[in-house]
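Journal club prep, notes for RB
We'll compare a predicted complex against what the paper describes. Inputs for the magnesium ion case:
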Amino acid sequence: MHEFEIIDKYFNWQNTDIIVGVGDDCAIVALEPQQNLVSTTDTLISGVHFPENTKAANIAYKSLAVNLSDLAAMGATPKWFSLGLMLPEVDQNWLAEFSASLKLLADEFGITLIGGDTTKGNMSITIHALGVLPKNSGLLRSGAKVGDGIFVSNNLGDAALAWQLMQNKQTVPTALLNAFNRPTPQVKLGLALRDIATSCIDISDGLLADFGHIIKQSQVGARIYFDQLPLSPQVKNARDSCLSLAGGDDYQLCWTMPMSAQDTKQLAQYKVTKIGVITQEMGLKVIGTNTKNCQPYRHF
Ligand code: ADP
Ligand code: MG
């Protein structure tokens, strides 16, 4: 199958809300005058970011979900994405499954595929996602203030426990497998936080590493209380505090905001847990467990 036939059959979704989409040298999209463009890129490599035997549907889901998660962390609304696909061979079953799963998630979040590139090589998927923000808005890593509370969405460590069980060739409970393969992008929460949070990040490399970016860029310190971290029963039972602190692949949001903002109506529908406080004293202190033996989560 020729490259252009692949693109036409699997990635030309005929969207109507763009000026020029798949099929020309570039895509053209229209911008509203009162909005800023928000841009992010993530690459997933087979054998590095997902096990080689991962189903095409899950690869597609995660490739787009991790980019949506970055947009969520900025408080942005997803709009368009392009897809850089490197494949070792043309496998129509794989492509059909990949494309269907990608379209399902894209439709759910209202993001439109506007172009890409298709090449031969070791399997890797690069997605470049674009979103919009009203001018003068956006959740940065640099805004945390002394006295702010530190908060996270949902649970931490489920994906890391799934990965650990997979590597030990143990059975992985479905809930954990879902957390690993199909993290729900927290886009709606990001929008709700846009006018409330002082800083925000999505947790991809583990809470400690990612929150470290917030305190560094905000030039503050922090105390995090281990016994306040939201953990599933499985992660609690695993008794390995590194799973939730350094595990990675959570794709939950972690943000700071004034303590008083906890009761804001916009947040009522989300699972929000306060895990610590921003301090004047520099550095990140974890109270209640020893983090010395936690290996930082690294892709390479
Ligand atoms: P060019 O040679 O000008 O870069 P390509 O032959 O790479 O063009 O791509 C042709 C058209 O198909 C372009 O509009 C490009 O954006 C689109 N395209 C290529 N690969 C993909 C893909 N995997 N998903 C979506 N669109 C794609
Ligand atoms: Mg090209």
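Talking point for the session: DSSP finds nine helices and ten strands in the chain.
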